[in-house]
Amino acid sequence: MKTINKIIPFAFSMLLFLGCGGTAPIISTPIENIDLIPLKVSDLTEAEKHNWGHLDLVKDTIPGMSVDKAYSEIIKNKKGKKVIVAIIDSGIDIDHEDLDDVIWTNSDEIPNNGKDDDKNGYIDDVHGWNFLGDAYDEQLEFVRILASGNTSHPDYARAQAEYDSEYEKWLGRKNQYEQIYQQIIAADETLAKHIGKKEYTKEDVNAIKTEDETVNRAKQMAQYMFSNEMDSMADAKKEINDGLEQINERLNFNLNKTFKGRVNGDDPDNMSTKYYGNGNVKPVKKSESHGTHVAGIVAAERNNGKGANGVANNVEIMSIRTVPNGDEYDKDVALAIRYAVDNGASIINGSFGKSFSPHSDWVRDAIAYASKNDVVFVHAAGNDSNDVDTNPNFPDDNINGQEVSNTYIRVGALAPKYGSNMIAGFSNYGKQNVDVFAPGASVYSTTPENEYDTKGGTSMAAPAVAGVAALIRSYYPKLKAAQVKQIIMDSGLPVTPKVVVGGDSNDVRPFSELSKSAKIVNAYNALILASQIAAK
User: Are the CB atoms for 52 and 309 separated by under 8 Å?
Assistant: First the structure.
């Protein structure tokens, strides 16, 4: 399941408001001294908001990955090797102005001739493969378990409990959003009448002086909207409408036990059939933006004067459309991983996950296959504020704690402020099963039709790490995938603060307890360590 947009937390706050390089020795940035440096207390500038994940903790006091520093001091004019990064996700807008020059092309396939020219089993797979066909909306996995009617399924009782909880929660959110929307409309009408025009400004609102409680309440609501980066009440209405659209999708499709989403004609419980779907890797609608956003984080064309910079240059993005608006099928994920490996990817990014996985063994076997074939698999830790050591999140790389891969990296999400709130409140964590943390909250990147947007999730943290892996494999191509993983973990920055965990201010722990490495990813240090190991 992909990242849920930032709109939901905003509405909850509204409810509260309403009352309803070389071989130099590795430079371990002196994080033990970071607490002696005055921290950034002002809001991020627009430029920092669009690039915070690439900034440097010591220089900027923002917990980025020192990407810009790596380019200016290590990469400079070096020429690296092209690296194929497979993005297993929703569709990618391969024609986007900031991505069109970094899309992988299968040179052995003749476009649109209806033939399997390279004999890999996939017809016209020019830029990747689409296992979903024309599908977009899907059920969640626990809903599919209930819809099967198989009460003897080992996860049936857990699925029923999850369904009951989730359905009640999302129905409650629908009612809340509808209530908020009506109050915004009423406030907008009150202000327009008092000011004497429908298209009023912030200045018009701030200038209101009246004893009328209804008008003052409307004024306070408008000012609250303005403080949340909205320029008008129309923006607020759009924000709530967008949230309602997400909520209705969750109720009508994801949580609907009678909905039939799989339209590619394939049986997801039969692994003997493999060649289904089509070669169209683009989104089926504009709102299918997740894969495009993830791709931009890895490899949006750098310094071209357009919207965003990816972490890595020298990358070719292979698009494998596998993740619908709902939970992905285990079979599709397993085959997507194998497709990526067999067609030349050296890094795979998986910004998806779920709590139920009936065929987890198929996916785990594919992850092991990637490892055996020297491929790094980077996976988002998930957005449930959970400890994944005790709460399952799939896909994973272990059976009862025994790992099947030494090239699988699971990534938690950082927020753009160093200190106690540096862990994104939504991020999963785990001392055993999360490897590292990387920038994931409020990340600016590409979206379909030459647009850009800010999204948050561990879905955004994983491709940041995939980008660092791509840099290592580009400039030090002799290093093996297992070495790349270890470099990323060993070269990260160990940070000292105790942090709020899961967004719960009552749960404060040392950062070191939340991941295996106890570090945040740092591209600059990673490249220096890679150069040392490569030199040996």
Answer: no
